[in-house]
Amino acid sequence: QLDCCHCSYLAITPPPPHPPPSMADTLDMSGSSSPEQQRANRILIGSRAEGDSMGCVTDFLPLLGCSWFSLNPGLFALTAGGGGFLTGGGGSMGMAGVGEGVEGLRGESSSPGGVGGAGRRKRKRCGECVPCRRMGNCEECSACRNRKTGHQICKYRKCEQLKKKAAAGLEKMVFPSGAAFPWLQ
DNA sequence: CAAAACGTCTTC
DNA sequence: GAAGACGTTTTG
Ligand SMILES: [Zn+2]
Ligand SMILES: [Zn+2]
C-alpha cells in the first residue's frame, strides 16, 4: 500500500524517492488511538503520514504530454463524463465515480462483492474538518441512536469530505472554469 | 477476532 | 430523495 492513488496503476515510475525523513527522537506517539489524538499528532509533525496527495498523478501529468490519454482510462472517462457520456441517466448503473475507468462496467469483478465499477476503496475521514474534530458521539442523532443496525458515524462527526460523493480522487483536475487541461490551451 | 464506519442497496 | 439496513473493509 505504498502507492498514491493511481500511481501503481499507471505503469510508469513516478514515486519520487522519498528521502528518509529521519524525524525520530522526542516524537514517540506510541499510544495514539483516538481519532482526536491522531489529528493532534498529524499537526505536530508535518501533516502527511498517509494523507496522500504528495506525488500524485496530478503532479507529473504535464510531463507526459498527450500520450498520457491512451494510458489513463480513469481520467479519460472523467473528462468525457464532464458533459455526458457514461454519466448520469445510466439507468441502473450505480454511479460510483469513475476511478478505474471501464473495468467491467457492471460485471461484479470479484474483490469487494459490492457493485459500482470495480471495488470502490473506502475513503478515510480527512481529520481536519469541523465534524472530524468533534469528539465523542452525541448519542442523540439518528445515526447514534440506531448504531446497532445503521453502522454510521455520529451525524455531527461525519467528515465534511465524505459527505460529498467521491470524485474518483481526480477532482483536483477539474477546474471550476470548466477546463480540464489549462496547460493544453 | 471485534469495533468503527464507508458504500450501497432498500425502503419509505 | 432521505433515512434505514446491511455488507464490507480497515485497523488495532
Ligand atoms: Zn450522534
Ligand atoms: Zn473531515
UniProtKB/TrEMBL annotation:
- Stretches of Polar residues bias are at 29-38
Superkingdom of source: Eukaryota
The record's section on InterPro entries has:
CXXC4/CXXC5 (IPR040388), Znf_CXXC (IPR002857)
User: Any idea which GO molecular function terms this record carries?
Assistant: methyl-CpG binding; zinc ion binding
Main location per UniProt? cytoplasm
Q: Which UniProt keywords apply?
A: Cytoplasm, DNA-binding, Metal-binding, Nucleus, Zinc, Zinc-finger
Question: In what residue span(s) does the CXXC-type domain sit?
Answer: 119-160
Q: Where is this region: Disordered?
A: 15-38
GO CC annotation terms, alphabetical: cytoplasm; nucleus
Compartments (UniProt record): Cytoplasm; Nucleus
| Known partners and oligomeric status | Interacts with DVL1. Interacts with RBPJ.
- What name is this protein filed under? CXXC-type zinc finger protein 5
Q: Which organism is it from?
A: Hucho hucho (huchen)
